[in-house]
Design a protein that fits this description.
The chain is mainly beta and 384 residues long. 8% of the residues lie in helices and 36% in strands. The longest helix has 18 residues.
Length: 384
């Protein structure tokens, strides 16, 4: 009995001890960034070139006390986050233009401080023909050229045009997908749309709800994962500075134009890249190359077409070219300009031992009432 009472007292003491502990919901210190400073360095700026060398590049540097992250918001509705506060922006609008950039510094507890900076920068690079090919002047859809070998591939990214093993740095010499090689995946569901909006190039990706990921991104094999890719991304063009563009024969290997897709945009196969070099482009075919960010020794290749592989194209011959006809609109013997007769039993070599004789008799062949009537007639033991 005494043991039972002792156990009850001990349990109640424990409960009161737990119940009386003070709850601590402290979130930690909340520190607002202060002393914010933003600098903009226009690439190529000199006394003779106060607005830069025409590349349109500006290097931003943001610093603030108590800041743990920074975000740059640009007037083309793109933004980029940077933990270091450093970011190089390419302004691609041709000509001399002034841009207002918003810089946001975030501190502990989610508080933030913002400021703006204006930059006037010159961009002289343009590739109007490529934009016309991409958009058709307004909007155009692009599909994986899935029946073409090498529509997805990978090769070396090296300063050597040809390495010791004969691998070229402008072709997918490590791997090139065979025709319809990825039919069992979601890759071919992706449709790219390039469009012009107020002279600004944009790109949209309809992935059907799933994107084909490179295995290194997810830590396994290449596979499809759910991903929302809705919305148009701003695309800027710039001159290529790739190893291919520096090859001795680069004019035959690359167009030399880079497509830089804002806000992490990509062209259907996810391996971390958002900048693609146009190797070649026509009205209905495009080949691009992009360096893999997590493995810059590799370059991935994509081939696209404007022909939708899911649409059956009717034959080129629409059967409107009439080659021959006879309407049998004159009664009597068949029209001699259109018909001839084989006469006899075929003993000269054209027959096959048939028990019949071929004739030109009206009883055997005649036109009547808009029809050609061919009649077999029995004559005793033979036929005509």
């Amino acid at each position: 009995m005494n043991k039972t009472i002792l156990k009850i007292i001990t349990l109640l003491t424990l409960l009161f001890t737990i119940g009386c502990q003070k709850d601590n919901y402290t979130f930690g210190s909340i520190e607002s960034p202060t002393n914010m400073e933003v600098k903009a360095e226009i690439v190529g700026k000199t006394d003779a070139l106060p607005n830069g060398d025409g590349s349109g590049k500006v290097k931003f540097t943001a610093k603030a006390s108590n800041a743990i992250a920074y975000k740059f918001v640009f007037p083309d509705n793109t933004s980029i986050s940077s933990s270091s506060g450093n970011y190089e922006k390419l302004f691609s609008k041709t000509g001399l233009n002034t841009y207002t950039v918003v810089v946001i510094a975030s501190g502990k507890g989610g508080v933030s401080t913002s400021t703006t900076i204006e930059v006037t920068v010159l961009s002289t690079f343009s590739d109007n023909e490529a934009v016309q090919f991409l958009t058709g002047g307004s909007s155009k859809k692009w599909y994986w050229s899935q029946t073409e070998e090498g529509h997805l591939g990978v090769g070396q990214n090296s300063d050597k045009e040809v390495d010791a093993n004969g691998h070229l740095n402008y072709l997918p010499t490590y791997y090139a997908a065979k025709a319809n090689d990825k039919s069992s995946t979601c890759l071919y569901n992706s449709v790219l749309t390039f469009a012009l909006e107020s002279s600004q190039l944009k790109m949209g990706l309809d992935n059907g709800g799933q994107t084909y990921y490179n295995g290194a991104i997810k830590g396994g094999d290449d596979a499809c994962y759910d991903l929302n890719t809705a919305g148009l991304k701003t695309v800027s063009l710039s001159p290529s500075e790739s190893f291919v563009a520096k090859n001795a024969n680069h004019a035959t290997q690359t167009r030399g134009t880079m497509m830089n897709i804002a806000d992490g945009g990509f062209m259907g196969y996810f391996f971390g890249a958002s900048s693609y070099e146009i190797l070649s482009i026509t009205e209905n075919r495009m080949v691009v190359r992009a360096v893999m960010p997590k493995n810059p020794a590799l370059a991935w290749y994509h081939i696209f077409t404007t022909t939708n592989p899911n649409v059956v194209v009717p034959p080129a011959d629409d059967y409107t070219n009439l080659v021959w006809s006879d309407e049998f609109d004159t009664d009597g013997a068949p029209n001699p300009a259109k018909w001839t007769y084989d006469i006899g039993t075929g003993a000269g070599g054209w027959g096959n031992n048939e028990e019949q004789t071929y004739t030109n008799a009206a009883a055997n062949a005649t036109v009547i009432g808009g029809n050609l009537k061919i009649t077999a007639i029995k004559n005793g033991s033979s036929y005509t």
